[in-house]
Amino acid sequence: MSGYAHGHCAAQLIYGFLSFCFAASCIYVVNDIIDVENDRKHPDKMSRPFASGNITHEEAVAIIIVLFVSSIAMSFMAGISVACLVLAYFAISVYYVLWARSVLLIDVMILSCLHTLRIIAGMVAAEVSGHIPLVVFCFLIFLSLACVKRQCELVVSYQRGDIHSYGRGYAVDDRTILAIISMIAGYLSVVMLFFVGASVGIVGSDIDIYSRLAICVVVLHWLTRAVMLANRGEMHSDTLRYALTDRGSIGSFAVVAVILLVAACIG
User: Fold this and answer.
1) What is the C-alpha separation between 32 and 41, in angstroms, rounded?
2) What whole-number distance in Å separates Cα of residue 64 and Cα of residue 69?
């Protein structure tokens, strides 16, 4: 691939990344506006800008318009295919915010699809194809984490003595079922993770195979630990915050980095 082609792909990736950043932020603002009353009843979410009243409704509408226009503009700069995916992302997100987020299990399925759609858009922007195991892996691990997030919310509701989770279609007794679904999806994602290496051509030597197995073990431990901490009420409901601040998570990421480094040096 020529230098121009590399630069073109890099530009598409940047524009695509910015487009989805703006799109996700836009949907988050819309979701917070619609869910403001439920957020005011939640011990953690009550401090959010809209729930606390720090941002007015008029300001929120202006923010939504700016984010939406910016997202669409960036998506077309990334290419017509990425623009179509961004529009699909907006359509599915609006469907989720207005209806699906309160429907049992449909909410976590759609959230997983939305996150996976971002990965697919990145692949389209980078002009790569044929990595079905990667797409399946992403959907399964996102489903696992989405169920953990709901599990955390239900554990908080249970500890407060509530029967249902505010604004959701779950009862507190569903937290055990969600934990089981999360572990099943997580374990299946680990199986797919092993084949992701094969889909991108990382095959042939014993070092490659053993390194992928080692990474799978680390990810398996990380996912199982997340479900157990959520069940104890010791995990923050924001899974991204958990991943970035939890010492066990940071340790797991460090181990994966070491495995990749050692495999690269030996291989």
Assistant:
1) 13
2) 9
